[in-house]
Write a structure and sequence with these properties.
4-stranded mixed β-sheet; about 65% helix; single chain; 33 helices; mainly alpha; elongated
Length: about 625
């Protein structure tokens, strides 16, 4: 039993949420009319003293109505239900009615404002009543400060729906947005006063950390109000990132199966609301690492489809900036692969969709530019190609990875996204090693995705000796390797005719010779071609030595021995150069024949010299 005023015995007990308050009621005029004149005067005087000393009924419209509407003149007990703020708020309101001093603070002003509305403590019953006192405090103290407005908002938990009815939430939210907008206007002064970049960020966006104390619904309303007031987009995004890091950091330390129903629902709501707040921001303005982090959380808490699609779209439109670790998103399906391949597949689809839209419509380019996106360059496509090849190699060892998903991801990228197919070959080789139970037809289907003409020399050498590959694949590798070796020897001019000749002859050879014999024949020919290239290199080194000797002979013309060595080296050099180009000698002879009659004696002399040496 709580006594607010203990000098006079109480005659009214009020029960609020299981707690009793001993208060005082006012003797009404109807009780005193049956008394004598002296008693009537005494009762009037006592009644006035009661109004002065015990003004609960005089300040509260609800108590006044309950006292007058009661049929029991000896009313001594009241029970209040649904009191906003509970017994604590009612005690403060009772102290205010009795004139007991207490301080109004940001922590209790919300309760006082709601209990004042509940007890109808307006100016209609008494001047400077509790409603007016709390409104004055809110306008003069709370609305001038972001910190105090946030304290009031945090104190509003458990006061619904009364806190909405009195407009307290909207008043504090608008106060925060107004104060932040004012801070933005004077941010230039903060730039001048702060030296380092970190201090500048603290001067401009000091309120970012403060907003993290709000629950997700209030935070959403604050961010919406800030946008209406014109607060900068970069500061809003920074606030969203900071809020997500603070509210979701505890769940990141837990395993998904450790989430309870309530915790899982709470985390899912936070993720979906934050993604909804990002929907109006430019795609490039949101950090990519944050998008991948929030996407992982969306997968873990099983967020809505629209939430995941928005994140996948934003990531796909700037996929060239991602890293391999970003794509390794764990899968929650126990019977599925270790990593979420379907999500990566959808992200890649969004990237290619953006590329197709830019190629087809100019209007889409304008919309992409409004989102802060540049046109996709070929280098960006190549980056994504290397990224996906690395991702394929990472997921290939997973024994639970289904072949259709693996093949679909390989086929999704266009041919121009890969300059060489070494990445695909490495991923497929790892997949074959991790899945030894694959049938021969499945192996052939998978290996057909490799373009043997786009393999490097190192990859071709490895593939030619890889026992995990089908025999037809190895033959194809050796065949194209042979074409490259022939091209190296014969030159680029003979490449086309040689390829046609090989194609026409290979069809007959493949029909007449078994695959195993054809495989041995191709390897033998490749070894011979490599040996021929080695011989050519030796000849080339000899020519380089002869050229050096020729230059030395041309520099010394003082002796006949040097002249003879000079002509001898020329004749030897010409005979060896004829191996690479027989037309050089003919051109030299035709040039000599075209000379005039004045040079006949000189020609005879040179012919005799050549015969002599």
């Amino acid at each position: 039993l709580c006594r607010i005023f203990s000098d006079v015995d109480g005659d009214l007990t009020v029960h609020v949420d299981g707690q009793s308050f001993l208060l005082h009621k006012v003797h009404t005029f109807q009780i005193a009319v049956s008394l004598t004149f002296l008693e009537f005067a005494t009762a009037i005087l006592f009644w006035c003293l009661q109004i002065t000393c015990f003004p609960l009924v005089s300040r509260s419209g609800r108590f006044w109505k309950m006292a007058n509407e009661s049929r029991n003149p000896d009313l001594s007990r009241l029970e209040l239900h649904g009191v906003p703020g509970g017994a604590e708020a009612f005690e403060l309101a009772a102290k205010f009615c009795y004139g007991t001093n207490f301080e109004i603070t940001p922590n209790n002003v919300a309760k006082l404002r709601c209990i004042a509305e509940y007890l109808e403590m307006s100016e209609q019953y008494k001047e400077c009543n509790l409603i007016a006192r709390t409104d004055t405090y809110l306008d003069e103290i709370v609305s001038q400060s972001v910190e105090k407005s946030l304290e009031v908002l945090c104190a509003c938990d458990g006061l619904h729906p009364m806190v909405e009815d009195v407009g307290l939430l909207d008043r504090c939210i608008n106060a925060i947005a107004n104060n932040v907008s004012k801070e933005q206007l004077v941010s230039g002064l903060a730039h001048l006063e702060c030296d380092s970049r970190s201090e500048k960020m603290h001067c401009q966006y000091w309120w970012v950390e403060e907003l993290s104390v709000l629950n997700i619904e209030l935070y959403k309303r604050v961010i919406t109000a800030m946008r209406r007031k014109g607060v900068r987009s970069d500061s809003i995004i920074q606030s969203i990132v900071h809020y997500a890091q603070n509210t979701l950091k505890d769940s990141q330390k837990q395993q998904p199966w450790d989430f309870g129903v309530v915790v899982g629902d709470k985390q899912r709501v936070i993720v979906e609301v934050l993604v909804g707040l990002l929907a109006t921001e430019k795609i490039t303005s949101v950090p990519l690492y944050f998008l991948f982090g929030i996407l992982r959380m969306a997968v873990e808490v099983d967020a809505g489809l629209s939430c995941k699609q928005e994140l996948e779209r934003r990531i796909g439109f700037q996929l060239e900036l991602a890293s391999l670790d970003d794509l390794l998103i764990p899968s929650l399906q126990t019977s599925d692969s270790v990593f979420d391949v379907d999500t990566v597949h959808r992200i890649l689809v969004n990237f290619l969709k953006r590329n197709d839209e830019e190629d087809s419509e100019e209007s889409s380019q304008c919309s992409h530019e409004s989102q802060g996106l540049k046109s996709i360059s070929h280098s960006s496509v190549l980056k994504v190609g290397r990224l996906i090849d690395g991702y394929l190699a990472e997921i290939a060892p997973d024994p639970y990875l289904k072949l259709p998903k693996f093949v679909a991801l390989i086929q999704l990228l266009p041919e121009y996204a890969r300059v060489i197919d070494d990445g695909i070959y490495r991923a497929i080789d790892i997949y074959l090693k991790a899945h030894p139970s694959m049938t021969e037809s499945e192996c052939k289907k998978l290996c057909k995705l490799i373009d043997c003409q786009k393999l490097s020399q190192e990859a071709s050498n490895h593939a030619a000796q890889n026992d995990r590959l089908p025999l037809q694949m190895i033959i194809r590798v050796l065949y194209y390797e042979q074409i490259q070796l022939k091209s190296t020897i014969s030159g680029n001019d003979c490449e086309a005719s040689f390829s046609q000749r090989m194609v026409s002859s290979s069809s007959v050879a493949y029909a007449a010779i078994s695959p195993r014999d054809n495989y041995a024949s191709l390897r033998r020919e490749n070894r011979e071609l490599k040996l021929e290239i080695s011989r050519m290199r030796v000849r080339l080194s000899e020519l380089e030595k002869e050229q050096a000797f020729m230059k030395q002979g041309m520099g010394d013309n003082r002796s006949a021995e040097h002249s003879r060595a000079f002509f001898t080296s020329i004749s030897k050099g010409i005979s060896k150069i004829a191996i690479f180009g027989p037309t050089h000698g003919k051109h030299w002879k035709s040039t000599r024949k075209s000379q005039g009659s004045d040079g006949k004696s000189r020609r005879r002399q040179r012919q005799s010299v050549s015969q002599k040496y």
